[in-house]
Amino acid sequence: MNQPLPFGSARHTGPPADLAQVMQQVARGDKDAFSTLYDALAPMVFGIVVRVVRDRAQSEEVAQEVMIDLWRQAARYRPEAGGVSTWAATIAHRRAVDRVRSAQAAADREHAQAAREHRTAYDEVAEQVEIRLDSEQVRRCLRGLTELQRQAVTLAYYQGLTYREVAETLRTPLPTVKTRMRDGLIRLRDCMGVTP
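The line above is the sequence of RNA polymerase sigma factor SigK; the predicted structure tokens follow.
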């Protein structure tokens, strides 16, 4: 098989051959017949591909793949289904569309990944800031409670003690602890702007 020429140039070796006969010879593995087929179809194939892909380098690559497909699939060509040029044009168009879709899918994946990474980083920072702000607000609001309210709430909510355990720890009657905790929680709620 002769070395293929760059797309857009062709060897003009004489009058155009009957491409259906050339295709039959290509199907039998005739490399000279493929050179003839290449010269006849490569410019058309490249033209179709470049109109779809719109990038010369990628278009040359896709057009080359189409020509290789024609070599490999020559035995599948059926003259009754249409001319060789039509068959080659169909393959070229499909390959070009596939390349565009593949490139778009890759770009979409990269964009989605970048968005996920950005969102994850933003969400983590936002969450840390929110926790820090909430913690500051809770500490500020806790300072507004009486000493007994602050101790009772801290023991119950930060150390997980029951009302009875809080009462025992503070050596305060259980009803008093319950009342102080209720009053303390109401003041915390109001301070933090939480609606009941």
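Note on the example: Residues 144-192 form a domain with the Arc Repressor Mutant, subunit A fold (CATH 1.10.10.10). The two ends are 84 Å apart (CA to CA).
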